[in-house]
Fold each of these.
Amino acid sequence: MKSISLIQFLIEERRAGRINAELSLLIEVVARACKRIAVATNKGALGGVLGEAGTGNIQGEAQKKLDVISNEILLEANAWGGQLAACASEEMEDPQPIPDMYPKGNHLLLFDPLDGSSNIDVNISVGTIFSILRCPDGVTEPKAEHFLQPGTTQLGAGYVVYGPATVLVLTFGHGTHEFTLDREVGSFILSRRDIRIPEETGEFAINMSNQRHWEAPMQRYIGELLAGKDGPRGRDFNMRWVASMVADVHRIITRGGVFFYPLDAKIKSKGGKLRLMYEANPMAMIIEQAGGAATTGRERIMGIQPSGLHQRVPVFLGSKKEVEVATHYHVEADAAV
Ligand code: AHG
């Protein structure tokens, strides 16, 4: 079978009228930047890229060297092409404008440059997550407020997993597709078109160490999964937790499953652990486009009107039926109060 490169796929999407030339260029630039991040992550200790950067980000989290390097690679790659009006990143408090010397485009790019960075030093998969929005008409110098658009308005979303293989997963709202990096050729090649997540699953992902801090409906839901065949669900469930959302989501779009980062007493005041604009929304779009569901446990993630660039939300996503059961338990518990 003839292989289809990412560039060829993008040209076909343009011809089908699903994306324009600027969006196509934007994906090419992001993909090229991610290849550079893959090279940096693959070097590991030999590249001198492991360990702490000695700085903190806006969220008060210690930055790893590779967080900083990946952020710089994405910013630098996206500055000059003319496809963007501004970028926003987990690693920066405010959006980064496009320098005046370069032409500006009509798109806004948000990214988590290196998700799961606690896993870098132990050689476990990490990734990049990105979301693409339209810059509002008439805005030439986008500020944070111009990024605050619900996930339903995303023009595209994707992630790259830097694992045993480097894999790009992409959606423009017409299905979710996977591309695998051919390292010899240097190109991403289409490896799965129109991915479908099974509606039912027997596998869940959650950080069980937070169990005692969860809300009652989450305790009930996971309690029932753990009870297995002898419990109300009448079957055994398996558990996996990589602690890199990209890797957990990639497993789900490959063989099904559900992922939860629910609200718990420790993080309640922050609204959740994961960031809405550059983690939850792009993953929600990818999952929904593959036939799965994504909620906060109470509402559809992509329906949320964001109130801040770095806003956090609880995340339930994956196989539709399990997301619905867990969400139903929360909604039901709220209604009973
Ligand atoms: P970060 O962007 O800081 O690397 O966050 C990682 C996220 C996500 O990838 C993962 O699912 C979760 O945090 C892991 O959280 P725990 O440390 O609580 O397991």
Amino acid sequence: MTEPVAATPAATPAASPAASPFKTRVFSGIQPSGGLTLGNYLGAIKRFVQMQDSGIETLYCMVDLHAITVWQDPDKLRHNTRELAAGFMAAGLTPAKSILFNQSQVPEHAQLGWVFNCVARMGWMGRMTQWKDKAGKNAEQASLGLFAYPALMAADILVYHATHVPVGEDQKQHLELARDIAAKFNHDYGVNFFPLTEPVIEGAATRVMSLRDGTKKMSKSDPSDMARINMTDDADAIAKKIRKAKTDADALPSDPKGLEDRPEARNLVAIYAALAGTSIAAVLSEHAGQPFSAFKPRLIDLAVAELAPISSEMARLMADPAEIDRMLGQGAQTARAIAAPILDRTYDIVGMIR
Ligand code: AQP
């Protein structure tokens, strides 16, 4: 198989699927490659919390092995990993309901990743838009790890036989590749061992854009801090960034169609909708005709009310890094108990003496 299998975004899964041999299990991860952004929060973490609270088995991972595919200062990486764990918990994830851990403490990810490096085809990897974006014209200088990133991501998911992965829009192609890898493995070895995992891409803000350029994704590694809202920003910083966010001179339309060709306006409305837990159409029907000078203060109120408590809880948790490390260590042990037998069976299928 050379072409990615199309993956349709699935609705939030039921706890017990009718016809699948695989138990519903949710896995997702975030790279500790910088501080968490509003994009990570609305595109991923908010959904993580909803899935956790719906009673499904959930595993959420700080993917530090992915982070080092581009240069990371070691001290900053440690700090960012703890801060990411603090962000998860401050947003509502809890070790009482979810398995929270960092990737490098569960060696089965890298071990299955190697098997998948041998299943995935060079052509598949070369077509990944994230690889093309991140390696750019400098592909010769990019790390081999950056190229192989999606095979490790497939291993992250499939080492738990995860059936659903909540992600933002930008990860859809990698999820399709994970399905290709699972399908090729199953086909080559004549088994039905790995599930074809479904992406869960839902909500009004599956792709939050930069506050400075509505055509660019909001990203942790954007050189401009004004382009993003960080989960560590306090109320003043959030207000300042929204006040200065790029917009246009027109008032808000009454219909989502009126936001076409207005990427910055669309972005702020989508952020509002995602924070309020409603749709873009509903936000427009409430605010139609308003200029941004009237809409932005409402958005600031909403963003500060939701994000400022998370940022202060993160600061409180970060005051006790040993407790975060202890929690991550325990999460890794629980995760290994699921991953080890799946890796063992994979090695057996491949023909390695056990
Ligand atoms: N702007 C975004 N809008 C919606 N979802 C987003 N996600 C990231 N940015 C947005 C989602 O967050 C999850 C974790 O992403 P990641 O940090 O592992 O990787 P990324 O997508 O590469 O995020 P960044 O911020 O752009 O990191 P850097 O700058 O290091 O590359 C994923 O589910 C992603 O979809």
